[in-house]
């Protein structure tokens, strides 16, 4: 029978953005953690102006910072990254670390975490065959030789 539980072993990823030998060891999130990451990453706020029943505003806030502050300390089990004084970065304190972390290194780690947890938006948002996106693809291109 197929095993249906998350992988408990960690995987090593070499960091191209942290030469010569930067690396992180990552663990996979559980399904429960994935759900918490998704729920916390998108916040839908409904605000209604006082005294008015018709003027309501819905806004969606994509909370990338929250999502990474949630996943980095849970997924990074080991690394060899330090600050300018050779003090190891503490990813349990993401508020502080993110303020000094090289954006290329942060983006590379984020990409590896997403790959490990199979976070690929293209899988979740496949357009329906009758969508306007599909119709737009089928329209002739004005610069094509046929027109």
3D structure, described in words:
The strands form two sheets. A three-stranded antiparallel β-sheet has the order 1-2-5. Strands 3-4 form a two-stranded antiparallel ribbon. It has one domain. The N and C termini lie far apart (57 Å). It has helices at residues 31-41, 64-75, 94-100, 103-116, 121-124, 132-138, and strands at 11-14, 23-26, 42-48, 56-62, 76-79. Helix 1 (31-41) packs antiparallel against helix 2 (64-75). With 147 residues, the chain is of the alpha+beta class.
Radius of gyration: 21 Å
Query: What would the principal axes of the Cα set say about the shape?
Result: globular
E-strand count: 5
Order of helices and strands: EEHEEHEHHHH
Judged by helices, strands and strand pairing, the structural class is alpha+beta
Helix tally? Answer: 6
Number of domain units? 1
% residues in beta strands? 15-25%
In short:
Helices cover 37% and strands 18% of the residues.
